[in-house]
């Protein structure tokens, strides 16, 4: 057979080159996937995959009209990808220009997270006692780059002193949210989407609505310190945990960051539906 003959004609050098070629292609694909991980591009790619699978299904089952419609979507898809993925493409080209796209990514170590939790606890405790309003969002799987673009880039190491200084009233960066990515304060004075839920208590202000709004569209963890009462709150996945003590705050933050969420009997939990437990 022709295929068998082609394999037998390969020299050891050709085999090594072919294997190296395949490995390089897979490595490039892996780095590209790593680059878009944690952004909305991942969800869009899943949608494109569904469209392609559906197109093959129309061929198998002879669904000509639906197949024509999906084919039109695929034909125009390249232009749509360029438009939709513009931020990711720009970021990839910038990293390629800086020579960072092929650097080995480092995982978030647990001891580093514990250090960050301690810094958050110290800062929140200080601000709560003095009723200094604060809004801090911690990125999880869903990227927050579109909200980072609305603020002032910092790219600074996380410390309690820096967090406190940012939210001191009447300073240039105090109004808005701080966004944390991995072990960095990426930006400050960022605008977050306000929740439009009608079930939110009227006593909650803009900071709480912004924290809930972000939790409804991303999986970010957001910390709120009330300027009026000094109360400490946490939000994630549409849930608002209010009036936390500093120890409850630390326990909730660790649970949200390290593992599945668990309700605390001593904390008030509000969902976007207006339910209250505990």
Describe what this molecule looks like in 3D:
Pfam families: CdaA_N (PF19293), DAC (PF02457). It catalyses: 2 ATP = 3',3'-c-di-AMP + 2 diphosphate. Helix 3 runs antiparallel to helix 4 (64-75), helix 7 (110-129) crosses helix 9 and helix 7 packs antiparallel against helix 11 (246-258). The N and C termini lie far apart (72 Å). The model is unreliable at 102-108 and 261-278 (pLDDT under 50). The chain folds into two domains: 2-98, no CATH class; 110-277, 3-Layer(aba) Sandwich (YojJ-like (1). Helices cover 51% and strands 15% of the residues. A hairpin with a 2-residue loop joins strand 6 and strand 7 (239-242). A nine-stranded mixed beta sheet has the order 2-4-3-1-5-6-7-8-9, sandwiched between helices. It contains eleven helices and nine strands. It is globular, with a radius of gyration of 24 Å. With 278 residues, it is an alpha+beta fold.
Total beta-strand segments = 9
Q: What overall geometry do the principal axes of the alpha carbons give?
A: globular
Count of domains: 2
Q: Indicate the CATH class of the largest domain.
A: Alpha Beta
Q: Rg to the nearest angstrom?
A: 24 Å
Spatial arrangement of strands, main beta sheet? 2-4-3-1-5-6-7-8-9
What does the average pLDDT come to?
80
Helical content stands at: 40-55%
- The helix-and-strand class reads alpha+beta
Helices and strands, in order, run as HHHHHHHEHEHEEHEEEHEE
Give the low-confidence spans: 102-108, 261-278
CATH topology of the largest domain: YojJ-like (1
Question: Approximately what portion of the residues adopt beta-strand conformation?
Answer: 15-25%
> What is the distance, rounded to the nearest whole angstrom, between the alpha carbons of the first and last residues?
72 Å
Largest sheet: 9 strands, mixed
Helix segment count?
11
CATH 2nd-level architecture of the largest domain: 3-Layer(aba) Sandwich
CATH superfamily of the largest domain: DNA integrity scanning protein, DisA, N-terminal domain
